[in-house]
Amino acid sequence: MFGIGGGELIFIMFVVLMLFGSDKVPEIARTMGKAMAQLKNATNDIKSEIQKGADANGFDQKMLSDLTNNITSEINSVKSNLLGDTNVLSGISSTFTSEINKTKSDLLGETTTSITEVSTTVSVEIDKSKDNLIAETIPETEESVGPIKRKK
Prior knowledge:
The protein is mainly alpha-helical. The protein has four helices and two strands. Among the domains are: 1-74; 95-125.
């Protein structure tokens, strides 16, 4: 009942009993019951007046249901037309994605080739520098063979 649990309802009733006293609570309950009954009657009167007005203007229940079904079908057709055109956008999206992936793979392939060429060139240069350094540090005139040094 309106999201109120049993414990909360008992607490509310206890507070009402303390505020108004035991002699006023039955009067308040009677008054609230009459008010709810009047509200229900007023709601039913309004519904019947609307139904009488619809009948007087030529709207019967079948005509109203047909009208709502037509409106619903129109809404659904508009939805399908709007959502049906996404297939074109889907094709364009897949084309862009494939082109981006192709360009990316081309760029990565060129970069890998360039890195390999640079790496090979650098290692050749390092080997040449190492050979030159070794040649400069070891004199060519002497050859060390065992304990005897010989001149060339």
